[in-house]
Amino acid sequence: MKYIVIGDVHGCIDELKTLLAKQNFHCNSKGLIELNSSNQHKAIILLGDFVDKANEDKLKETIEFIHKNYHHLNQKQKHLYLILGNHEKMVYRHITKDPSLKITKKSIENKEKYYNTVELLEKDETLKKLFMELYHFCKPWFYYKYSSNFSVTLTHAPCPEKYLRKEDEESKGKMVKCISRSKNPEIALDDLIPYTHKEAKDNQHYHIFGHLSQSNIRQYKNKICIDTSAIYGGKLSCAIIKKDSLSFDSVPFENKQKSVHQNYNKLFNFSI
């Protein structure tokens, strides 16, 4: 199986469809991805954060598109996987009124600023049910092993290696979200999450993640970030895993909705 691993979508449904089409996943008139001889040996993996930040109509279309294609593509053999992102997790906590979620003035401000899917789901019960179902399909990690020399671990966020592919709650939390950049804007990203480069190795046991919006794909040794800021007007990117090789592809933001603004520093911003 060949895997198409797509970075943070954040409601960029037009770009998602364009990127899928580049990988020979075309939609029919009902919006269902058609399987044929050119793609039946491929699977799609969404690397988390398919919700939030986009316009409401695009968020709605994104949730509906992923939901119907999750069921459609996985009827006989699995062709669509979902990795849990911190935005799906936080939206779920809000709409289920998680008692551990403290409601403060700041949390309300953050919900309105960062998690606009919550308000959308609160006024659309049908869409809320679709999202809830998708949430339960999400997993915190995916592992691909081709040989003793080549493997790929997928998580939404970077995390120390000791947490990778573990099933305890602490490890699952670390794979979904790392320490907040927005709460630590004065700290260089490489200093905020030093394990990302300190644990990097010159081998082909890759760790691919998103979460950290960047202007382009960032790689240092076996650590790779593929969140290329689609909703910020950048690109939507994917990693393509085929046997024991990796390649990458991307499509630009199509300006079919308003992009949002964000200033964050660069990952792996040092001389090698």
From TrEMBL:
Residues crossing the lipid bilayer are none
Q: Name one GO molecular function term.
A: phosphatase activity
Give Gene Ontology CC terms: cytoplasm
Q: Show the SUPFAM superfamilies listed in the entry.
A: Metallo-dependent phosphatases
- Pfam families, alphabetized: Metallophos
Looking at the record, the residues that make up the Calcineurin-like phosphoesterase domain are 1-129
Q: What is this protein called?
A: Diadenosine tetraphosphatase
- Supply the source organism's classification: unclassified sequences, metagenomes, ecological metagenomes
